[in-house]
Amino acid sequence: MNLEQIEYIKEISQTKSITKAAENLGISQSAISQSISSLEQELGIRLFKRSRYGTFPTDEGKSTIRKALDVLRSIDDIKEDARITSKFLTGDLRLAADTTLIHKLPKVIGRFKQQHPHVNITVLETTHQQILKTLDDFTFHIGIAGVHDDILTALPSGIQFRQFGQVPIAELIVSKNSPLLSKPQPLTIHDILTLPMIFHKTPYWEKFITFYEKQYGPLNVLLMTSNTAVIKSMVAEGIGISILPNYLLEDDVLIDQACIHRVPITLEYGPPYKQYGYVYSTKHPQATIIQAFLPFCD
């Protein structure tokens, strides 16, 4: 038995007609008849009998139908309780986001606020190290951060990590007129060593540059900036190329308009994070508001 079949039972009981029930539910008469027949076989009893006066519960089916309708009423009560809770959820929600991942929050917060307009939200932009360090003191409710496997395995008791999005990988971005687009892919570091490069100014990319300069000598670093919009604009103008993690390239207007192109590249140096997602403490005294927010993060 499933909820769909219970809905059929309810409609047939109310209309006393399979034909009218099917019309009201917007399905075919044969579909509802087959579903009820299948349920009767599953239960081993006949639920309804047809006559020229309509379709009525059988004597043996009355008890089962009554219990099924009780289940449906209970489900409706649960939905109503959830609706009321949703409407009147109040309080403060403090979020912390890694600088490289904060762009993930606007859509999530927007959807949450539509359902919970009375919750006050504040966002702190910080580092993943600071987020993980302050989870236990309840400075904020939820953090968005990138982590490596060693961090995941060392998370303290009560700290949960909820992954979202794609597995992080580094991608090369070039202008629409770049000759690199005609090269066999994936590219390698050897294809770009002499080209002007624009890097995101973070400790990871500083280590990335050091790693390759030790092997191949100085790279042609045109600019390092913490502003990823500047990086993408300069690439679109053909001033240089860049390598960015894929989560910084999602829902990007310059990519959507084909002003810049994502090019697969094979690199020895691993991505900034192995995973990225939401971290929170199950011991937080305001767990209700955390649990209300998490479904919007998927």
TrEMBL record:
Establish whether keyword Zinc-finger is in the entry: no
State a single Pfam family of this protein: LysR_substrate
Q: Where is the HTH lysR-type domain?
A: 1-58
Q: Which GO terms describe its molecular function?
A: DNA-binding transcription factor activity; transcription cis-regulatory region binding
User: Where does the source fall among the domains of life?
Assistant: Bacteria
Q: Which PROSITE patterns match?
A: HTH_LYSR
Q: Which organism is it from?
A: Caryophanon tenue
Name of this protein: HTH lysR-type domain-containing protein
Say yes or no: keyword Translocase present: no
Q: Report the PANTHER family cross-referenced here.
A: HTH-TYPE TRANSCRIPTIONAL REGULATOR, HTH-TYPE TRANSCRIPTIONAL REGULATOR GLTR
UniProt cross-references to InterPro entries, sorted A to Z: LysR_HTH_N, LysR_subst-bd, WH-like_DNA-bd_sf, WH_DNA-bd_sf
- Key words of the record: DNA-binding, Transcription, Transcription regulation
Q: Which family does it belong to?
A: Belongs to the LysR transcriptional regulatory family.
